[in-house]
Amino acid sequence: MLLSLSALGIVYGDIGTSPLYALKECFYGHHPITPNHDNVLGVLSLIFWSLIIIISVKYILIVLRADNDGEGGILALMSLVSSAEKKSSWKYVFITTIGLFGAALLYGDGVITPAISVLSAVEGLKVATPFFTPFIIPLTVIILIILFAVQHKGTAGVGKIFGPITFIWFIVIALLGIFSIIKNPEVIGAVNPLYAVNFFVENGFTGFLILGSVFLVVTGGEALYADLGHFGKTPIKLAWFGLVLPCLLLNYFGQGALILNDPKAIENPFYYLAPDWALYPLVVLATLATVIASQALISGAFSITFQALQLGFLPRINILHTSEQERGQIYIPRVNYALLIATLALVLGFKSSSNLAAAYGIAVTTTMVITTILLAVAMSKLWKWSKPVVILVTSFFLFIDLSFWGANIYKFMQGGWVPLTMGAVIYFMMTTWYKGRKNLLEKIHAQTISIENFITEFLSIRMIAIPGTAVYMSSSPSGTPPPLILNIKHNRLLHKQVIILTIKFHKIPHIKLEERIQWEEPTEGFYRVIANYGFMDVTNIQQIIDLLDLKGIKIKMSNTTFFLGRETLIPNRKKGLGIFRDKIFILMSNNAQRATDFFNIPPTRVYEVGTQVEL
Length: 615
What we know:
This protein is an alpha/beta fold. It is built from 25 helices and eight strands. Helix 6 runs antiparallel to helix 15, helix 6 packs across helix 16 and helix 6 runs antiparallel to helix 17.
């Protein structure tokens, strides 16, 4: 129960604040429909069954089963299902491609959610009095700046109050809905799916476009899955079925009942649910709830970046761990600044939650389609479901996902291009880094020799042995690092203890400490060490040294020198996109965090050996 309470703010912050703008967009957005009896019940029916089918059945009951060693999210799912395919197969390439693109699109969600959520909350002041209208944008900007400015402090402290505040939020929106439903109880009939069917029959293509607004009620589905590793399946399920789903439905149905009684309320049905005396407290509570929802998406963007970095799709960047107890609580300054600038640009550019709603949906629906495709692989390869069942389940969810996707595509020119463009740019950068790094490592490895040949060829040469330990960082688990060869060729020096260290990341979230270190001693005083990490694990040189000490390999930091290669990259004489990608890769490489900082190596103990490499 305590975990479920904690999960409320983080897991359900996004989906829990959708009542602020979702139903309003159906009757007051870019494709408004008449708020008559049949249309109101039809929209409510669509909302009810969307929450049941997409969130309750697809995500809660099925997608949450696809945990990668307890971790969730599209990158974790991609890593999980790709492990069932051969790396050389087209299926592996396809899974990796769509998984990466889905992850890139989530950055768009991480930018739009704070903008639309906080803006829609502050817009409640206009309901109280037109006096506040000029102050909506400035107030939203101030709140967002404060939100991003405190990110470096982490969520460890404020996280304790996230759950209780969100709990109060859900209770309040449920009560507001109940009081309205009592005045017009016929809205309960919207649970009948025939109202949804009749809605499409009566409204035709316009009814189909309304799906783009209805989709706003389920936009937190991917965030829900991504937070699996923080809380586990049971608390997430308990919170959804025990509190979140009933409260959301009561509020949506209450808004519907209000619109039936007073069609003018479509301007902002959420705030019109509240009595006059409760309006200002409700604006404050809504603002707090949207800040919490925004925090969850910002933390999610940090988590995606960290996973992508560990999996080799992004260069090293500065990552600060804000909690000694929770390894998942991280702060990435560059990502934080980029999100702040993009979020403020959206608020200043779109100016209202209705305009932002037009940009919202395309990225999330695309990610949901990708999740369904990856889920089909999990059902078939990992869970061993029968082929007819896999086809039936996948077809059912794809039909629904693609329907929402099709409706949202019509928002493209109204702002939907923003998150898609952002996702495309991030995807381009991810693939550019991955391919460029792979190409660079292949060129470096082509110039290296095996450890066995190195021992035979070089260690027989007469050279000066100096006391202490030399740790050579190597990307290859079998070859000899170029700095070691160059050091011997030019300086004729060799430390009494030499360790070739390779830090290897695996496509599983975590590696147990007892399985972290692999080592061998091909000759006396010469060690080959491989440190294994999962994509959610934090690398630390001191931890590796402590683990080696337990295995009898003694390293005294004051007598140790770390040798690192530093490549000067030269673009190849390609033309068109090839030379452009090479230059982008070089730019990313030059701006990557230094290995000494990323791996926490004391800079005074580092010796860098430079080489030139033509890409």
